[in-house]
Amino acid sequence: MSQIFISIGSNIEPQHHMSLALDELQQLFGSLQVSSIFESQAVGFDGDNFLNAVVGCQTELTLEQTANALREIEVRHGRPKNAKKFASRGLDLDLLLFDAVECQQPVILPRPEIFYNAFVLWPLSELAPELIPPSSQRSFGQLWQEFDKTKQQLCPVSFHWQPTRVKV
């Protein structure tokens, strides 16, 4: 079993899409560890605010199978396969970590956004404060403590997810 962490973001009907994404992730991976949900401004473009979270879970899928499964979930939620990086979206799922794998393909791991986006680092530090990412000397908890929190404002939001059965 591999330990993985996935970031979830949405700024189009975010409560709806995040709930459905959590349902699908639970169906795919089983038990989920879900961080707090945070609201943040869009980064890199003008758009509605995002809701963001990080999920931790285990999988028997390979790295490539995991990346493909996440992309399929995004597509089911209206994200075009050729979507622009900085654009509004119903659902954005990014594989942040897959065990201690470092690679460039099929995705870049560890995901670089971990280290410079508060909406990824804060929830990841909630789930795995003692975990030290590959090629780092500091844990996620330490990285969050050292992060310049004036650069990106986050607001924890109330979000109540009730798992449901989804048909994929």
From TrEMBL:
<dbReference type="InterPro" id="IPR035907">
    <property type="entry name" value="Hppk_sf"/>
</dbReference>
<dbReference type="GO" id="GO:0003848">
    <property type="term" value="F:2-amino-4-hydroxy-6-hydroxymethyldihydropteridine diphosphokinase activity"/>
</dbReference>
<dbReference type="GO" id="GO:0046656">
    <property type="term" value="P:folic acid biosynthetic process"/>
</dbReference>
<protein>
    <recommendedName>
        <fullName>2-amino-4-hydroxy-6-hydroxymethyldihydropteridine diphosphokinase</fullName>
        <ecNumber>2.7.6.3</ecNumber>
    </recommendedName>
</protein>
<keyword id="KW-0418">Kinase</keyword>
<keyword id="KW-0547">Nucleotide-binding</keyword>
<keyword id="KW-0067">ATP-binding</keyword>
<dbReference type="GO" id="GO:0046654">
    <property type="term" value="P:tetrahydrofolate biosynthetic process"/>
</dbReference>
<dbReference type="InterPro" id="IPR000550">
    <property type="entry name" value="Hppk"/>
</dbReference>
<dbReference type="GO" id="GO:0016301">
    <property type="term" value="F:kinase activity"/>
</dbReference>
<keyword id="KW-0289">Folate biosynthesis</keyword>
<dbReference type="Pfam" id="PF01288">
    <property type="entry name" value="HPPK"/>
</dbReference>
<dbReference type="GO" id="GO:0005524">
    <property type="term" value="F:ATP binding"/>
</dbReference>
<keyword id="KW-0808">Transferase</keyword>
<comment type="pathway">
    <text>Cofactor biosynthesis; tetrahydrofolate biosynthesis; 2-amino-4-hydroxy-6-hydroxymethyl-7,8-dihydropteridine diphosphate from 7,8-dihydroneopterin triphosphate: step 4/4.</text>
</comment>
<feature type="domain" description="7,8-dihydro-6-hydroxymethylpterin-pyrophosphokinase">
    <location>
        <begin position="85"/>
        <end position="96"/>
    </location>
</feature>
